[in-house]
Amino acid sequence: MIRNRWMLIISILAVGMVGFIPLRFLEIGERYAFAAAPLVRWHIDNALPQPLAWFGVVNTETNLLVIGGREPSGNPVNSVYSAFIRQNGDLASWRARASLPKPLVGHSVISQNSIIYVLGGWSQGDQDERSVYYSDAQTLAWRQGDPLPTDLHQGAAAATATHLYYTGGYNLSRRQVVNTVYIADLAANGRPQNWRPTRALPKSIYRHTALVYGNHLYVIGGFIDQSPSPWIYFAEIYSNGSLGPWQMSRMPVPRDYPQALVFNGQLMVLGGRRENNTVLERIDIADFNWDGSPTHWRQWGSLPNPLYKFGAVTAQKFKRDYLFVLGGRDGSNNLQAKVYYSDIPTPPDIYLPFIHRHPTPTPTPTPSPTPTPSTPQSYLWWQEAEEGDLIPPIGRGAETAASACRYLYVVDDFSDGGASYSFSVPSAGSYTLWMRVKGKDYNADSLFYSLDDGTRFVLNIPQFNDSWTWGWIALFGGRAQRLNGGIHTLRIYSREAGSSFDTILVTGIPGYVPNVHTPCTSLPPEPTGLVRDGSFENGPPPASAWEEHSNTACEWIGNYPSVWDDVTAYHGQNYFWGGGYCKEGEVWRPASTYVRQLAYVPKADATLYFHYLLQRVNDDDPTPEDFAYVTINGKRVWRKDLIQANNTRPLWRPAQIDLSAYAGQIVDLRLGVISEGDLTGNILFDYIQLGRGTAEQGMTLPPASTTPQPPAGGTAIPFLARPPVP
What we know:
By secondary structure, the protein is an all-beta fold.
């Protein structure tokens, strides 16, 4: 778990910081903005057609829709605007769509099953509404569903695939805040019908937000007992749609008019107002426990400026979330038309989502073949962690205390890395899932997991026998899971770097405590598949098997402890340094450098593996002009922009590239950096592998080139950064 540190998370990169630096917003040029910390960025998008607050916003997967709201004159509007989400992730221009049947403000808008729902609100003349409108997301031909049981505004709606909920709210005619929760069935055509009360909230509440995640309904923030609420109420949703008992979880700060959403499997709460009408810019994020409770709150960063009565919604790129923030009122109560989006996720380092080692799941309960048990009460299945379908970046370690000598570990906090395990149970029944795990310290002791692509929960790794050693822990708090017969999938995701796991176990045996373990008496040799001089241990050419080409007079293959003082090579002593600056006399030259060799792509494992470490010290360029790359026969197969958001120092990150199109061929392999302009970044490459098995026979490679290289020495000195130009 994370203790005494805040996390700033953008895209796929997470960086721990001691304390939190308040972030202020800066606008640069016409369409670009960023917060003070280099990894928290906001970009200016196309503004709304007019300033708006208290509207609804949804993402239909192709468009953002902004529905209703309050204009600067104070009147509600019936406008509906849409903006297409372009291929690069930002928005096209806004255009008017089919208007609502009447102007609305303080209404609730959600999207479910490609249907848009608009519930309650105020209309002209400050008249409360009980109307419920719905339409498919494409035509926006508004129809009426069954109305709410009473007139309400400033409540919040949420939905499952089969039911629609409306929580709390304010009734103007009675001047009453309510604690009611109403539920409606969703017909096959999406029409809400048969509204009825379900379990009421513990307190009367309005100015809140609501959402459904997994099998829980969440009511977040709001105004309770004449003050902003710090509470989240959550309740389990039963199979018939009714609610279990309400539970409470406290947020870091109280707030009304917040926005809340699920962001990459975590609960995010944004903006709003706290006591004394102080408008907030902070964003807080939490993980989900197995029981649905939010846990491990931390500040994620800040909005572009303090906001309430605004809109926020997620979009996806490369299966990762990013944010849009729209309109609202700022800290001076001014209406806004500005639209911002956070950094758009970049392509992952691997171009295939899984390494499929097991095309068909095996129900084998032990490493040796045995018959599949016929009943849950006799079922026992387990698998070594390293034999799952691995999702880079994930580390592979070896130690004698690990089962079968091998284990997996998290490389980067909150990265995409992980592993997937498929297993088959014989029949419907209750099954308990276990993992053998090990933490490193109190900042490296947690993972995420999900079953059958359901809710993603956090797994806190404890000490075993008062030390950070291997031990078994049951998932879902030890609660058995009801599974149907057939194949199921457990996925493990990265959370904190250094957290390790080495065995997965599933059993239906009542009271079973795992004791399976494959002893390791000595560590087996690691198959390398290294290309010639793949870890650069021969030093620069001509001793190296690599050609080296640079626009500078500096040497870039070697070991540079005076510059990379907290970094050691991933393997051995040396590495290839791409980018950086060569100071030649008094001239600072950004380096564009590459190394090259001819290499054989094996048929058995046509994959390029390598490790890299990236740091940019100087400011980013206005556009990503500086980047690292890998090419095969002149075709680029990997790119990483040298920007501060991609910094990994001091951690090495693994990457792998599918080269099946080149299997069995000798190819021209190049790794390098292009630096444009006066500033650039730095990347280290090490441990270059083609396949991970033994060399295939029958292929003779040409000798290493001895092409003359730019002379090193003299006054040519490499640097990570250049000082400001006077």
